[in-house]
Each structure stands twice: as structure tokens, then as C-alpha cells.
Amino acid sequence: MTVEPVLIANEWRPSQSSSTFQAENPATKQPLEPVYPVSSWADLDAALAAADAAATALRQTSGEQIARFLDLYAGKIESQTEPLVAMAHAETALPAKPRLAEVELPRTTGQLREAARAARSGSWRLPTIDTKLTIRSCHAPLGPIWVFGPNNFPFAFNSIAGGDFAAAIATGNPVIAKANTSHPGTTRLFAIAAHEAAIAAGLSVGSIQLIYRTSHADGARAVADPRTGATAYTGSRAAGLELKAVADRAGKPIYLELSSVNPVVFLPGAVKSRGEQLAGEFTASCLMGTGQFCTNPGLVILLAGPETDSFVAAVADRFRAAPVGTLLSKGVAQSLEASLNTLISAGAKLLAGGTPGGGNGYCVANTLLKIGGSQFLANPGLYQTEAFGNATLAVISENAAQAARIIDSLEGNLTGCVYSDTHGSDDALYDDLAGRLRHKVGRLLNDKMPTGVAVSPAMNHGGPYPATGHPGFTAVGIPAALRRFTALECYDNVRPHRLPAALQNKNPTGTMWRLIDGNWTQGDVPS
Amino acid sequence: MTVEPVLIANEWRPSQSSSTFQAENPATKQPLEPVYPVSSWADLDAALAAADAAATALRQTSGEQIARFLDLYAGKIESQTEPLVAMAHAETALPAKPRLAEVELPRTTGQLREAARAARSGSWRLPTIDTKLTIRSCHAPLGPIWVFGPNNFPFAFNSIAGGDFAAAIATGNPVIAKANTSHPGTTRLFAIAAHEAAIAAGLSVGSIQLIYRTSHADGARAVADPRTGATAYTGSRAAGLELKAVADRAGKPIYLELSSVNPVVFLPGAVKSRGEQLAGEFTASCLMGTGQFCTNPGLVILLAGPETDSFVAAVADRFRAAPVGTLLSKGVAQSLEASLNTLISAGAKLLAGGTPGGGNGYCVANTLLKIGGSQFLANPGLYQTEAFGNATLAVISENAAQAARIIDSLEGNLTGCVYSDTHGSDDALYDDLAGRLRHKVGRLLNDKMPTGVAVSPAMNHGGPYPATGHPGFTAVGIPAALRRFTALECYDNVRPHRLPAALQNKNPTGTMWRLIDGNWTQGDVPS
Predict the structure, then answer these.
(1) Are A456 and B486 in contact (CB < 8 Å)?
(2) What residue in B sits closest to A475 (Cα-Cα)?
């Protein structure tokens, strides 16, 4: 049996593995060749040693050189579109077109190129210069970053090609990617391209490394290792909180993107004036990617009334009529079924779906559940159980005051949406409910579904705990997402020629924004 | 027995206390009147309830109104200079002049006024506007902030007047101050002034509250309470890490400033060319405030040689000749003696001091210890034991390579200094050692002692764990210190009139810096 090698210290080498695993095609339930290693601590230790050395080298590497790597890598990914799409489709059952080839792949290369621009300008450093006191500071790389990628975006959040990877390397940190175990083949293809690009760009050995899988214990040891700078994790809440506990104890930053039910509130005027349109829009967002988006609307809050009844019935009809997508893996299907059982056992009423099957491979019928507001409030934690996949819970509030209490009972979420009419009849209610929802979510939307996460400097793909580990950081959006992987470094009375380029009098890139004596400028320090 | 009331929900009310305590004059070892309460959970719960309500009100309060409060408060403090200085002198034994009256008090009012300017301009929000995608985001208040102030700056880091207080309230968060138990009377005087200023400025009930002391268990419960936004803690490492563990488990941000030995490296050329001058400068920094500064140089690294021997001897002479200051409390004296015992038992050689007494009240002779580089490297963790107070450990490295290993073995610190000559003889060594030290400290200095912490936008009073809990944040410096107490809030497709003022097309203050479509500007969004 041939076991795939891991990428450590600039070479594809045999893993010191404790066991092996294979991916599975979720549409056929058949295992996929080849066989991948479950790395032992020896692999992780070797990767950390190489990354530690690379961290020192990368601190001396210019933003321009890192940008060249990112641009080269993006080009290589584009030239590998066909095999990447084929592999990801086999491993995830996500549609080859438009999803993988036309949406997610361009997003991925776009992110890498945007990270390249950020590395070139260096504005992410927030250089701050006090000429009177001769104190200067800027953000700087943290050191080796572990990236644990999720199952649901094999390209755009891939541990060796996605947003966290791009943010970590753009800021001069070595990355050790831990592949998501449901798409190791896709991650391997990316790693080959990344490795070639890194060699072509002359990045230091150990800047980019890959392992496929490891034990929970070794993963925990890795995030707490003294050589680790920080960790980025996107995935299940239980596994993420285990890593968080270990990282926190070791004083190591960890950025988590965990569960989120992404509440959507439809105010009565909106339901009344455009219920049919909204039912379509809402259903599309709920079922997009078979509901496997971090920002999937898993909870919808409505006010009781005849229009709401019609709206809910229309959504249920659409759920039943829509094709049933394949889930990403057996694990996702099992977890979705378990969550649905939890909700149904707790009294949620089934309006559509609820049963396994109905499509190819691992799948569960598109599921719409309903519960009354009083019942929700009797155990809000339980009814916020995330049912990751094509399932949504409708909460029917008896009145506005109860809707306010429901919102107040919500945990932290990535997003929250409020739909209202355009004639003012919902305005007072909007002010109350959106005001409450604002502080429960990272991104507040009006009249728009949350599933799109635009790559914009103004984006916040983050939110209050337990959606993430800290409400001040975003995983998407440049430069904010980049600063997660940095330390603030201050130079007090340091002799001018010893300052890093970003803090010297001359603006090193000509495009770097710096806060000089209280003013943001792309100019030099006035002499 | 009259017990001082606590400040909860806009009134000075009797504490629901479990017990009481008194401050002590460390110079006379005599207890000071009056008697202060140890609050039970009932007090903390009431304060949290009031702060929770205030948080909602403060979010609607303009930066201008908060600035008025801060300015009024600064003025009231100035009008209370005499009683404040007298009380702080009695409670801490810090010199009334120049330290308390002429240095620390003006620094405190200066910080409050700078926070007022920041609240007025609103630039701390980092508003980011993407006009093409209609996504806008900015930083916003987090909610009730607990401030646990340290013993060593009764004014400038006071829990209800210092930097953390100013940062939390300037960003629109209610503050619940927990007085440092060694200076409750000073804190009470501040709270009276703050309360009056809050009423005069019309701040919401519950914006500013004070308790004096509570049990460790109730303190831990408070930082993890669902109503808590975040916590700022400056103090001992052991107590801080206990709070961190609880806050981390609850997903609540906590900003810690813990221990730091602030390594100073004197390169051979500097010692040779200006050893006498440096011995004076170094001794002054070591003994300033009886060594009770967070940035006190507790560890000095030198290269073995005759000039180093003379330098160390000169410093020892100066330590012996200098007056012995009074320590802040019995606890500080006990802890210092314990740390010295640890270091001496581990083999550090006593060059000066080492014995209790020599001054008024609680004191320990100015203490200089020495150890060889090899011995240090045999147990670097042990020899980095912080001896908070007027004590410093000199590490004599055998050669440059060993000095590099010593620096590599250091824990995270707030500051690190390198002194070098001005003729180039130290340059190669500087590049190696300063490069290593850079990533162990928040602030790197050249030819300057670390004890001064200028209030500058470019300051970093922070550093890698365990100096603080996160290497990206600073406790001093506006606006960076302010952003610790904020969440990132994004508005996606939100109707323009519903946006917060900071994100509307018109710049609401005229001075707010905003990142509009990639450019920093104080202008409006171009129409």
C-alpha cells in the first residue's frame, strides 16, 4: 500500500504515520484512492522545527517577494482548474459548475491576489509614527501558523489555499496546513502548486507545509507548542473549543470560526408586501450548497399571523419541491440527523423533510421545522442547536415583545438579517429588534440573505462568542483578517537605520498607509 | 463601625458585604481609616445589572457627550489634587512630590483628556466603507468592562481614573471598577469625582461604578458573567491567570498585563565607552519608584570581561549608596523577599542588598544579584522569576553565542533594551541580539531605559505572553488601547438612514479618519 507523503521542510517525504485514512465520495459512498497518512507527533514536530526556522527568514523577506509567491500560486491554481474541480467534486459532491469552477475557484485566486496586493503595500501593518517622541510601531508577523480548514469550502477556505492561509502568509508567517480530512486530495493538489510557487518565488524552506490528519492529542499539543505563533480553525464547535482551551492555557492566540445559526427576522410588513418573493429568496439561501454554509440561515423569526402562516407554508412547499443535495460526508449527514432528532424530540414540528435520503449518497430531505415563541423561550439554548445542512427552524413569535426576548436569548452569531417593508410600517419594530440583534451578530443585513460573504475590506466574517473566539476579528476582509496573525511591535528611540522599512522616514512602498503624527498618509515622514 | 458604601447604579449605597478590610500605611505599618467592604456577589450582580442597562444607553450616547464627561472629570481631579496626593501618599508611600503631584497626576488627567479627544473624533472606530458593495463596518462598544487596577500606579492606572478606565469609557462602555485593595481611599476620591462628572455630563445611570474588593470566586464569576463585555486586569501573574482561565472558558475577552522582567542588554562597546554614565542611568531606572514599575529592568545581560566587572561593581556601589524606598505594601515586601530567596537558593550571587529593612516601613535593601550565563541556561524559567521591587539580576554571558541563547530562552516581556556604542563596534552583535530580542518583547528600545511609558499613539505597552494575554494589543496609546474594548460590527446592505453616524456618508465629526474604498480620509463619502 502506497501512502501519500506529507510536505515538510520543502520536501514531499514519507509521513511518520500512526495509521492511514481514505477520502470517500459522498455521492457514491465509495472510498477514493489514494491512501493518506495520519501523522504522528514526529511529523508535527519536524514541521514546527522547519516553520520556526522559516519564521526568521520570512521576517527578512520583502512584501514584494511574498506577493510574487501569491500571484504565482494563483496562476498555478488557474492552470490546474480541471483536476482541482474534478477532485473536489469527487471528494465533496459539490457541483463542478457553477459552484466549484465558476464561483469558488475564482474567489480563491481572487483572495490570493488581493492578499498579494496587501503584502505589496504593507498597509496591514498600521505603521504609527510619533516623530516628536521618536516612538514608532507597526504590526509584524507572529510566527508559525496552524491552519485547520473546514469541510464546506474545499477551495476558498482550504487550509493551504483559502483565506486564512492567504492572510497568514501575506503577513510573513509560515503556514502549517492541516488538511480537512474530507478532501485530502484537493488539498494535496493545492499543496503541490503552492510548493512549486514557493520554490519559484524563492520563499524559505518550511514556509508552507502540509499534513493531512493527526490525533486530537497531537493537534492540541501543536497549537500549544512554544514554536507556534497562532492557530486558525474553522470547523465544528466541539473540536474547536477543545483546541481553544489548550491554546488559551498556553497563551497562544487562536482564531476560531465555529457554529452559527444566522437568525433571519422577517417583519410583518415585509411578509405582507412581498412574502412570495421572500419565500423564494429565503429557500434558495437555506438550500444553497445543501445548507452547508457557515452563514446558512438556520433560524428564522416571524410574528404570528395569517401572512406568516402562508409564508411558512410557501417555504415548506419550496423545501419539498427543491432537489435534495448531497451532503459533504457521512459525518455531516450523521450530525445533521442527530441535530434534527434533538430539535424534534424537544418539540419542534416538522413541516417538510426530516427523513434521510431523497438524493444521491449521503443526504437528508430538505427540512423545515417550526416552534412557537414561548416554547423557544423555555429552552433557547436547546433550540439554537445548529443543524448544519439543509435544515431550518422557524420560530413563530406571538408578538413583538416576545420577538425581542427571543432575540435577546440568542447566542453570538456570524450574521443576522432583518427584512422590513419599504413604506415605514415596520420601522418602529425594526429599530427595536435590529438594535437588539446588532449586538448578537458580526454582520447585520437588511433585505439580503447572509449566505454571500463578499471579500471586501468592510466585511466582517466573525462575531460574538461562540460564533468565534473574539468579537474584534474577522476571517474575511483585507486588511483586517490579516492582522489576526500579527504582533504589535514598538520601537522606542531605536536608531533610524535600524528601524524596519515600514517605519523608516521614507515610505518603502509608496502605497503604504501610515499614521504619522495623527494623520494617515501614503507619504514620507516630513523632514 | 461605619463601612464605606459602594457606588452602584448611580448611588453610594451600603455594600452587601461578606467582610471588611482597611488599607495600611506602608511607611508606618499602621492601618488607615476608614473601613471598606468586601462585596458579596449581590453587589457584583447589582452592578452588572446596572451596567447592562447603561451599555444600551451608552451606545446611543454621542462621543461628544462622553468627551464632556472625561474633560469634566479631569478638571475635577485637578481641583482635588491636594486630597488625592495626600491620600495616595498615605496609602502607597509613593513620594507626594514630584511623583504623585507632578508626574502621575498630570499624566492621569492628560490621559483622560486625550481619551476625550479620541471620543470626540471617533477615529478609534476604524470605520471602513465599501461603497461599491454597500458594506460598511466599524468598531463599537463591547458592553460592561471590569477594570482591576494594579497597586503601583494609584493614579495613572487606577481602576476608575487610569488608562484602562479611560479607554473603556471613551469607547462607550460602562465600567465597573474593582479598586486595588492597597489604595481604596484614593480610588474612592476618584470615584466621587467621576460620579459627579458623570451626573453633570448626563451619562446614564450605571455607566461608572465602584466596588472595593470581592472574593476570588466572585471575581471569577464576574468576568465570566453573560452581561460582561470584557475585563482589563493589571497585577500579579498568578491572580491574572486565574481570571484568564475563567474568562477564556466563557469566551469573554480579557486583557492582562502580568509579569515582566524587561531585559536590558549592554553590549561591550557601550560598557567600554560610557560604562560610568550607564551605571548611573541603569541604577536610576532600577530603583525608580522602589523598582515597582511594570517596566522595571529586572534582568540585565552583559558579556563577561573586565569592563563588565567594573560596570557591575559600579552598579552594586550605587545600589548600596542609594536610599532605600518604601514598598507599596506588606504583600509586595513578602513577595519580593520570596522571589529573592528563590533566586538566591538557586545560586544567584548577592552583590548588594538582599536583606529586609534599610528604610521606612516595608522595605528591602536595594538588591543586585549576579549569575553566570551557563547557570542561567540550566534553568531559564527559574531565573526569570520576577522580583517585583528594587531588585535586579545581572546575567554574565561568557560570549556572544551564549548571550543569543539566553535571549532565546526568555519569556515574553513588555520591553527589551539594547545599549550599543556609537562607533560601530557593537553593530554586528546588535543585529543578532536585537533581532532575537525583538520577538520576545512588545517595545524594543535603544540607548534608553524602559521605565518611561510615554502616552503616544505609537506606544506599545504590551507584549508576548506571559507579559500579556495577546501580543496584538497595547494598554497604553490611543487609539490602539481603546480598540481592546470593542467589537467589529458590519452593516451589509443596511438602509443608509439606519447606519450609525460613523458609517453614514457625511463624516459626523469632521475629524474622524475613515477608510473609504481603500483610502483614509477625514472627508465625506463622495456622492
Answers:
(1) no
(2) B488
